[in-house]
Structures are given as structure tokens and as C-alpha cells.
Amino acid sequence: MDFNSRRITAIIENALLEDRATSDATSYACIDPNQRASATILAKQDCILAGIGCIGRILDVYAALDGAVISHYEVTTHPEIFDGVRLHKGQSVAVIQHNARVILSCERVILNFLQRMSGIATLTRKFVDAVSGTKARILDTRKTAPGLRLIDKYAVRCGGGLNHRLDLSDGVLIKNNHIALAGGIGPVLERAVRNRRGSQLIEVEVRTIGELEAALAFGAEAILLDNMSPEQVRGAVELCARTERPIPVECSGGIRLENVRAYAEAGVDFISVGLLTHSPQASDMSLRVALA
What is the CATH number of domain 129-278? Predict the structure, then answer.
């Protein structure tokens, strides 16, 4: 991920502004402005790391917001520490050497990014491991924290998952509300084929075998099986396999660690899991400071 990109910079800037990091009353009152410190970020539990690149970028954006000349800083990590690696409890993530006030003012924002992103990556890896040995790949959804989609979806990749659509412009996915407003599967597919941009794949969400048969009959190019049981999914996959053209099959709805293996073994190509980004548990990390 390019942490220097305009969109990531805006996310980081908003986080620092939200915390009024450049107006840290406690650090201003208690810490000498010329004091330097060394801060070690520690993993307090086993997890998959994501977001290591945000540390230096947060310090850079803070400097731009502060408007003052900030002393030189260094962020050092072990060569074996990078996004996607498995961390163990007590392991050092990174060491920051910088102005003490700046470290304390940025502490919470740095940890918030690392903990959320690593939590998503850790949960994603659990799902990826659960379907190991099958052809199924784990996908995320658009159920991300508002404003944080880029980092949420990057964290999924760090955990070994794949990104589904980044946004609404990124492909045609016809859902039940589109079908209802367009007058049925036939009419909605006819309009989609006529109006799609370029060669975007047309995927149709179906909830029953009857809807699946209609979608295939009217030319759906990919299928999303919504809220079906593993047994129903297996039958749907077999039906799609009898078509003349390859039909990628995805399933979603009610997917948990306890049942994801059953869905994978039903033969789907993709399993989309909303809770990767809408309900992750942040990985526990801490920042410990010492005099430099």
C-alpha cells in the first residue's frame, strides 16, 4: 500500500485532527519541548501484523499539521517484521526515536491504526486457514468503517484474503433490490448487459434455486448465492457446472469460522465475509517510552 497517497494521507490527517494531536494539553504541560524519547511498540497478543507503514506517515502528517520544524525521527523494525507476518505476544513491532512530545501526541493514532488493521488481518487469516486445501478464496465486502475502506481492505490482503469491489463503480453486482425495481431477473439482466461500462462482469445475487435457474437462463456471468445452507450451495454449484460457459460462484450470508469450511467444501470459488471488516476485534498493542 502507498501510505503516501493522497487518500491515505487524508485518512491519517483526519485521525490526527479528530484527536487534536497538535494541541496535546498534557504533553505541552508536562514534557520539555526539546526532550527526545525512544518508544517501542509491542504486540500484547499473537496476531497478524498490518499497517507498519502508517507509523512514519503519521509522524510526517503530524509535522505538516503542526507547522513547526520537527526534529529528525527514525522508525526501525527488525527485517523479519513486515505486513502479513505473524507476531507473537511480547514481540517488538517497531522502535520510534523522536521528539518526546510528538511521540506522545501521536501515540493513540498510531496504535489505533495498527490495532484495527492487525485485528482485521488476524481474523482474515483465521478464515483463510479454515478453508485451506479447498479452491475457495476468502473475500471482503463493502461493510467497512466509514472513511476507512482503503486501510480495512488492505488489512484483509495482509491476512491473505482478497478484495471484492472497492466501491460501487468497481463492477456490476445485481442484488434483490435491483431485481425488484427493474421488474425481475430477465429485465434487469437485459438492462445490465446493454448499459454496463466496458467489459465489467455481471454478477447476480440469488437466494433460491429458482432464482439461480432464471439468472443462468438470462445470461448471468457470475453468481452470488446469498444465505443458502451448505447443502443448497452444493446443489447450486452443481447446477452452474452444467452450463456451457464457466460461471464463478460466490456465497455469502451467515458465514462464520464455525461453518466456513462446509461452504468451501461445497465447491464455491469465493466466500465473502462481511464480519472481516464490520466486526473485527482490535489486536492488543502498547507503546512504551524511555528517555533517548
Answer: 3.20.20.70
